[in-house]
Recover the amino acids of this structure.
């Protein structure tokens, strides 16, 4: 079986605007822009930012504002949300925000949508206020967004200005089979959060493909997988760098959240056996190693899943090491695409 039936796999970046120990969100935003500029030069397709709230190490809470900053500092790479958590927002406001972004940066803005709160329940209540207990219908909210973006909405009493008549591609994000059914039924591209929720990945993309209904937006299924990537010139260096992402997820499973920590020589000094098991479960789709190890693991992953696009997220403490990891990843994917093209 050839990789993706001899079609090129696109490669992209997911950035949580991770705040590292000893730095501030302001520092993080500057390094995010530098990474986006590097990704653009390395041929990455898109640069997405995720909406999370009340997390000390994640500074991408005002997602649409940060998208504008990144898009304004780049020239060709697509910039978008991975994703906007739709229950936190009125569809009209999302349409206006992304209509504004698409007006400023035409042909470059993506709108990825999720149905989770992107935070804990207490914070979700603070975000939503009196709407906290309201019923949120994810598919109907997506349809409202599509309607606001449609030129046919010009006769409505409620219009998205800017936004109306603009081409803002909508993606469905998910970590379960529920979102796969929504994406399939609506004929939209599907991005799966396999970087932290790997359990339903294979089942979800299979269900999506089997049930996909062509639409005016997409004529055949399109699957993006988000994975963790930590690469360096040697396997041992990549393994050491990866202890930062392990500590990041340790904070998630233990509730002891910290700013992104520097690498450590031995994770056994940091976690217990139960925590190690839980973190490794979450990191099942992680690609850690030097170029050759990365190439072997990515090829097997591509052949197994037949994904159309791989989005890499990299929680690496040192900024230059993170850029180098993305450089190696881009080179490896380009080499795999070249091999597939002649197979």
């Amino acid at each position: 079986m050839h990789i993706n039936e001899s079609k090129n796999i696109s490669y992209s970046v997911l950035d949580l605007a991770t705040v590292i120990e000893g730095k501030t969100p302001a520092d993080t935003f500057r390094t995010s822009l530098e990474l986006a500029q590097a990704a653009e030069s390395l041929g990455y397709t898109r640069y997405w930012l995720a909406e999370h709230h009340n997390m000390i190490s994640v500074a991408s809470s005002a997602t649409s504002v940060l998208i504008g900053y990144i898009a304004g500092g780049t020239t060709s790479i697509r910039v978008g949300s991975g994703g906007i958590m739709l229950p936190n927002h009125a569809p009209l406001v999302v349409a206006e925000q992304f209509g504004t972004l698409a007006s400023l940066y035409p042909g470059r803005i993506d709108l990825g949508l999720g149905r989770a709160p992107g935070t804990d329940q207490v914070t979700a209540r603070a975000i939503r206020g009196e709407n906290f207990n309201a019923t949120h219908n994810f598919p109907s909210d997506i349809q409202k967004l599509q309607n606001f973006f449609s030129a046919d909405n010009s006769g409505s009493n409620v219009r998205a200005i800017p936004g109306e008549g603009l081409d803002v591609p909508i993606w469905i994000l998910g970590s379960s089979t529920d979102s796969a059914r929504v994406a399939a039924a609506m004929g939209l591209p599907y991005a799966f959060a396999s970087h932290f929720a790997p359990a339903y990945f294979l089942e979800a993309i299979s269900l999506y493909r089997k049930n996909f209904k062509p639409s005016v937006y997409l004529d055949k299924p399109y699957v993006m997988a988000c994975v963790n990537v930590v690469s360096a010139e040697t396997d041992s260096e990549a393994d050491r760098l990866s202890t930062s992402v392990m500590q990041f997820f340790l904070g998630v499973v233990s509730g002891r959240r910290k700013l992104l920590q520097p690498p450590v020589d031995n994770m056994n000094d940091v976690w217990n056996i139960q925590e190690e098991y839980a973190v490794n479960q979450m990191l099942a789709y992680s690609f850690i190693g030097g170029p050759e190890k990365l190439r072997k693991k990515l090829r097997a992953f591509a052949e197994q899943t037949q994904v159309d696009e791989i989005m890499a997220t990299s929680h690496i403490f040192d900024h230059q090491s993170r850029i180098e990891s993305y450089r190696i990843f881009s080179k490896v994917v380009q080499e795999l695409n070249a091999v597939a093209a002649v197979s």
